[in-house]
Structure formats: C-alpha cells, structure tokens
Amino acid sequence: GNAKDESGNGHDGEVKGSVLIQDRHSTADSAYEFTSEGVSHISIPKSDTLRPQKMTLNAWVYLSQEGADERFNILFKEESVQLAIDNTGKLQKVKNFVGLNTGGVGRWKNLEYMGRFPAGEWFMYTATYDGATMRQHLNSQEICSGRFTGAVFYENSHKYPFLIGSIQSSRGNL
Predict the structure, then answer these.
(1) How many whole angstroms separate alpha carbon 140 and alpha carbon 114?
(2) How many Å apart are CA 16 and CA 40, to the nearest integer?
(3) Which end of the chain has fewer CB atoms at under 10 Å, N or C?
(4) DSSP 3-state percent helix, strand, coil across the chain (nearest 5)
C-alpha cells in the first residue's frame, strides 16, 4: 500500500501518523488506519487542479467503534468540500454527510443521511455532485439526494491541503 496518485495527475499523498493494515480482501499492508485526533491522516498538497465543480468522492471505510463520540472526516478540503461520518447520536442527531461550501466561512450546504453506518465491517461510502444534485451512496445503493445549485467555493482553498482520514476525537479508529 501507498499514498501514490494512481491517476497519473501527480497528487501523491503524504502519510502522517497512519499505519498500513489489512484491507477488505485480507491483503496485508493495503489499507490505512487513522487513529489519532488531527495527527493521523493523508495530506495531498495544495493544487489548483483539485478544485472541481462536479465530483465523486469515494472511500472504502471500516469503523472500529460504533457510537463513540467521534466525527470522522473521510475526505476533507478546508472551506470547500467534506465527506464525513458522525455516527454518534450523542452530541447531536446522527448525521453522515457530504458538504459543499457556497461562499466562505460557515456557508455550507450539507446533504445529511440520518441513518447509522455499520461498525466492524467494510463498506463503500460515496458522494456525488453533478452540478445540480448531491447524492450519497452506501455500498452502491443511493441513500439520499438533494438539489444544490451554485458553485463550490474555493477562494481560500489554496491555503489548505486535501485531507484523507482525519479524526476529530481521540477515541476510535477509522
């Protein structure tokens, strides 16, 4: 396993505090585990080519703990785009969401799915945005959708890397 960009676009990631583990096919050292708040993630350097207006965000996810007070950012670009899991239901309603920023700090349009995601098994979590509709999929099945119009905000995104696997709590693994 590695954090190399297989597309050929040169968006190789830098692994920070994450360790290689067994993937969903039981292949050793083929998936990354993210375990520590703000420390464990993959950082993709800033790039003007990572500013899409239409997108598919996709990840295979294994939650080691269900119901703990965690929010997991699966994919995250500060002030622009996020795909997150908040399975807790303790601090607020359970909500798993894709968010697109529409114009600056605090101006997010979120598509929320209020169901719980499974713990202790691999699942595929996908979000798409085609310029008019956001959709979320769990294991290739659409679980929610919503209309969204307007451009995704990237004005300040040149300041931030694209992150994979960031945890916003010190408990639980992703």
Answers:
(1) 17
(2) 5
(3) N
(4) 0, 45, 55
